[in-house]
Specification:
alpha/beta; Rossmann fold; seven-stranded mixed sheet; globular
């Protein structure tokens, strides 16, 4: 009788089951230079998630990564917002300075009430409830764009192992360090 680990199961499923499909791929130019923008259709929820990348991404080399979830239109309009530990603008600026990196923008439905609440209270943090489905979707997107080793643009925190997805977290970079 063979015995496997959860890591083995995750690895097998991530190699054999694709829950995402790249449905758009193009270059975009923004205030922080040119980025490659890919849209991924989530086969489990029907949502569309985005990945912005800059430079050549190699699995064996450490890559700056920001996984931003949930994404809101306010994350683009209010660059100084304190809703996340690292804003989309800060992540794009840091990646531009380092010439290489990936930002994954994970979409969740945003109701009008959610948008109004965020407008009224800038200190409101997005819901912190961990969703294993969105976690796996983010990991598949990172693998799809070529990430293996990564330094996260985020505050250090305890998180499940990424080894089953073929991803390794090498460390964290604070917004102060990334933009220094």
């Amino acid at each position: 009788m063979k015995i496997g680990t959860i890591r083995d199961l995750i690895h097998y499923r991530s190699e054999n089951e694709k829950l995402i499909e790249c449905v758009a791929d193009r270059e975009v130019t923004c205030a922080h230079g040119s980025f490659r923008l890919r849209a991924y259709a989530d086969r489990t929820s029907g949502e569309v998630h985005l990945a912005l990348s800059k430079g050549e991404i190699f699995a064996g080399e450490e890559t700056l990564v920001r996984v931003h979830e949930p994404i809101s239109v306010l994350d683009f309009l209010d660059c100084a917002s304190r809703r996340h530990s690292f804003s989309v603008d800060q992540a794009m600026r840091a990646i531009s300075r380092h010439d290489r990196g990936v930002i994954v923008l994970l979409h969740r439905k945003e109701a009008g009430d959610d948008l109004l609440a965020a407008l009224k209270d800038d200190d409101q943090k997005p819901a912190a409830k961990w969703d294993p489905r969105i976690y796996g979707i983010g990991a598949q997107i990172l693998r799809e764009v070529g990430v293996g080793k990564m330094r996260l643009l985020a505050s250090p925190r305890k998180m499940p192992s990424m080894a089953g997805f073929g991803l390794e977290v090498c460390g964290y970079l604070s917004s102060e360090e990334a933009l220094a």
